[in-house]
Amino acid sequence: MKVIFNYLLLLILVASCQNIEKTPKPENFIPEPEMIDILEDLAKIDAAANLNQKTFDEKGFNATNYIFDKYKIDSAQFAQNNAYYMENLEVSKRMYEEVRRRLEAQKKILDSLLIVQDSIRGLEKIRKDSARTEERKPTGRVQKFFSMKPKDSLN
To answer: Which pTM was predicted?
Structure first.
């Protein structure tokens, strides 16, 4: 029984050590910097679509086709290149880290713009409120009436 178990274990080990072929470099190879740009745009559009899917559906906007048209690629070319890059863990990790870094930098810029926009809105509100206050101030004869001192009625 022990001999059969050893042969079975050896057979399993030999079968599991098969030669795994790597994905060949695609004919229409997309260079790494361009692939990073594509992944960044896909992340942005995916986030926008998740935020307001109804608008995307109403307008009939197909985000994936937009990206493919922008970079003049098709879905098969993207899939082949994506599979090629994903086989190398270090390359794919570097690419996605770059996408994350870019998105975080853009988020910081947008956050600072929102702070400025909120400040401008606050200043506009203060200006409008002070303009309303100026409109309410009495003028002319009304102001003269309220600025007069009361006369002593006992005289």
So the answer is: 0.63
